[in-house]
Amino acid sequence: MTARLREDLIRLRTDAALETAAVGRLGARAQRSDVRGDRTCWLDDPRCGAVAGDYLAALTRIRTAIDRRLFLGLVEFEAHYAAYPPGARYARHRDRFRDSDARVVSWVSYLNPEWHAADGGALRLYLPNGDGSDGDAVDIVDLPPIGGSVCFLSELEHEVLIAHRERHSIAGWMRRRARDPL
User: Fold this and answer.
1) Structure pTM?
2) Whether pLDDT at 130 is above 70
3) H-type helices in the chain, by residue range?
C-alpha cells in the first residue's frame, strides 16, 4: 500500500492539488512559511485515489482496536498527505489545539523509499522526562522518515526537522468528541 499511496501523493502534487499548509484553526488560521513549509491534501478529498480510502479504512480498524483496549473514547480518524520540499520543516508544536481536546493520538506514515538520515526530515519528539517535578525537562527522540508508521499522544510537542530532499508522508489523528469546557 505504501508505494500506491506515494504514487497518489506524487500525482496530486503534479496535478497541483496540494495546498500550502496553514497553522492554527478557525479564524486564527494562517499560512506561515517560517513555521510550516509542507503542502497537503486531506485524504477524504475526492481528488485522492482509491488507495486513500483504503488507508483510511485500515486506520479506522486500527483506531477501533486501540480504543477497545485503551478506552480513549476515539470516534474517528482524519488524515492528510504531506509533501515537504527540500528546505521545508514544521516548527515545534502540538497537534492538540489549546481550545479542544479532540485529537488524542497522532499517526504519521512515511512514504519515502530509500531514505537516509542525511536526508533530514526527522520527526523530533519532546518526551516529558520523569514525573514533571523538574520543570520542563524533556528527552528528545529523533525518528527519521525511513518507512513504516509512528504514533504518539497528540498533546506531545514535536517538530519535523528540515528535509534535504522531498519528504512524503501522511499525518493523521485519532479523535474523540471534544469535551465541553463549561
Assistant:
1) 0.88
2) no
3) 2-14, 50-70
Region of poorest pLDDT, from 5-9, 50-54, 93-97, 132-136: 132-136
Q: In what order do the strands lie in the sheet with 157-160?
A: 90-93, 157-160, 123-128, 138-143
Q: Per-residue pLDDT for 24 more than 80?
A: no
Q: What would you report as the CA-atom Rg of the chain, rounded to the nearest whole angstrom?
A: 16
Residue 3: what residue type? A
DSSP string over 37-85: --EEEETTSTTS-HHHHHHHHHHHHHHHHHHHHH---EEEEEEEEEEE-
Helix (H, G, I), strand (E, B) or coil at 137: coil
Domain ranges of the chain: 2-176
Written as nine digits, the cell of 166 is 522531498
Question: 2-176 is classed in which CATH architecture?
Answer: Sandwich (2.60)
Q: Report how far residue 81's alpha carbon sits from residue 15's, in angstroms, rounded to the nearest whole number.
A: 14
Among residues 39, 36, 13, 34, the alpha carbon closest in space to that of 23 is found at 36
Residue with cell 533530514: 120
pLDDT of residue 182: 47
Cα–Cα distance for residue pair 100/76, rounded to 1 Å? 15
